[in-house]
Every structure is written in C-alpha cells, then in structure tokens.
Amino acid sequence: MKRPGRDEDPDRLYTVTGGRSRSDSDAFDLVTLVVSESQPTPGMQSEHASILRICNAPTAVVEIASDLGLPVSIVRILLGDLHATGRITARHPRTTATAADRLPDPEILKQVLVGLRNL
C-alpha cells in the first residue's frame, strides 16, 4: 500500500520546495483556512497553481495537503511562498467561547442570591 507523501521521491520534494525543509512562517497550522486572492498565472510552479485552484473557497491546510498528496510540511512551505506574494490570505478559524466566557459576572450572581434569600 502506497501512502501519499510518505513514499514520495525525496528528490522531487526537495525540488518542489527549492531545497527548503522548513517554512519561514508559523502562520499555517493544520486548521488554518486559506483562500486564494488571484488566479494561477502561466509559468507558475504547478503545485502553487494547484493550491490557488483548490483554495477558491476557504480550505484547511490539512485538506490542501490531502488534495495534493504532499506532506503538510511541504504544503506549509508552498503556502508561505504564496502568502509572501499576496496570492493567498490565511486565517485561523474562530474558536468557540470558553465556559468562563459564557458564565455571568459573579457579582450579579451574588446579588441574585441575596434577592432570593430576601423572599
């Protein structure tokens, strides 16, 4: 069974990233949503062009890696290239409010308790 990205030829991955093994930016984690801001142009690296086509709608980094069949680390490097040239925008999805953020102010709860005791 062939695993995408794992059994990839290391020489090809080296070429795709221009010899880089790490992204210059930590802006892209697995769930960062990426949206393309431009269309592919002639002469553009095929992986960059594929990313721009995939990201017409907000797409998570892990989905992009899956669609391309490349390791996430390689995709992060490619995304960094596109982000640096303004061809994509990235944002982390909103997190839900924590339980502490949803609770009422403790002072209000004390006042309610005092009011209930006075009944």
From TrEMBL:
InterPro entries cross-referenced by the UniProt entry: DUF742 (IPR007995)
Pfam families the UniProt entry points to: DUF742 (PF05331)
Native source species: Streptomyces ovatisporus
Protein's UniProt name: DUF742 domain-containing protein
Bias (Basic and acidic residues): 1-12
Residue ranges, annotated region (Disordered): 1-24
PANTHER family in alphabetical order: DUF742 DOMAIN-CONTAINING PROTEIN (PTHR36221)
